[in-house]
Design brief:
Immunoglobulin-like; 2 domains; mainly beta
């Protein structure tokens, strides 16, 4: 019978022991963090743009001599304020890298904000603004209000002083007796067009919009009605970061009083 040599087996055993002894040890604790490197360089540049003015009907006003821009830093501290020229152009030179907010304003116009934007610096950043005249009209009375169950709408028949051009009403609704255009005091916004030369207007608000906002059957809804610039969605408006709702500033100073109400079916 043929004898097996023990030498190969012995070599395999020795090799396995050697390899296991050479395995990578477990990682030790992390060393201390190194020093913080220097911040990147601040670059200087210009923030500029144009401020477009609009009347309450949404038509652009070409002379912008009364408009101006105010620049704030990330801490909401005013850095500078400049007037726009007759073409609406403004510029903030020598501005460092950072985050900024610009307020666009003019006497008799609603404010617009360009909020918390980043300026890299080292060149020119264009930031344009649009602001509209604050209207002076509103409804003069609510003659009748009801709920149309067939169409599932709140319906308010109102009187208004006529105008040769179409206009816009904005209605802010919530179940708060202090309902207003303040974003903390409304849940729903609806708009209504007033036809040219009309002396009455019918405001309709879908019940589904009220229910979807969390208002329930049997609750009282309050409606704050304002005259508004026709281009309220693109001019003199910006977001309230606390509520996520819009702030619309080209509206009448106060809503129609007393606030109309209805009880949800």
């Amino acid at each position: 019978m043929k004898k097996m040599s023990l030498l190969p087996m012995l070599l395999l055993f020795v090799g396995a022991v050697y390899l296991s002894s050479c395995s990578k040890p477990a990682a030790g604790p992390a060393g201390p963090q190194g020093p913080q490197g220097q911040a990147g360089p601040y670059l200087v540049g210009t923030i500029s743009g144009h401020i477009d003015l609009f009347d309450q009907y949404g038509s652009q006003i070409l002379n912008s001599k009364t408009s101006y821009a105010i620049l704030y830093n990330s801490g909401n501290t005013q850095i500078d304020s400049v007037g726009a020229d007759s073409a609406g152009y403004y510029a903030f030179p020598n501005i460092n890298t950072g985050f900024y907010t610009i307020a666009y304003r003019a006497p008799g116009y609603g404010q617009q904000l360009r909020q918390s934007f980043q300026f890299i610096g080292g060149g020119t950043l264009n930031e344009d603004g649009k602001i509209s005249q604050i209207p002076a009209f509103n409804i003069t009375s609510v003659n009748a209000d009801s709920i149309n169950h067939a169409t599932m709408n709140v319906v308010m028949n109102c009187s208004i002083v006529s105008d040769i051009k179409p206009r816009t009403l904005l209605i802010f609704a919530s179940n708060n007796p202090a309902t207003s255009a303040n974003p903390a005091n409304y849940l729903v916004i609806a708009s209504q067009t007033v036809k040219a030369n009309a002396t009455t207007v019918v405001i309709t608000i879908a019940l589904s919009n009220l229910y979807n906002a969390g208002m329930v059957s049997g609750s009282t809804v309050y409606f704050a009605i304002y005259g508004a610039a026709t281009n309220y969605g693109t001019a003199s408006s910006y977001e309230d970061f606390n509520t996520g709702r819009g702030i619309i500033t080209a509206i009448t100073a106060t809503p129609f009083s007393p606030l109309p109400t209805t009880v949800l079916p």
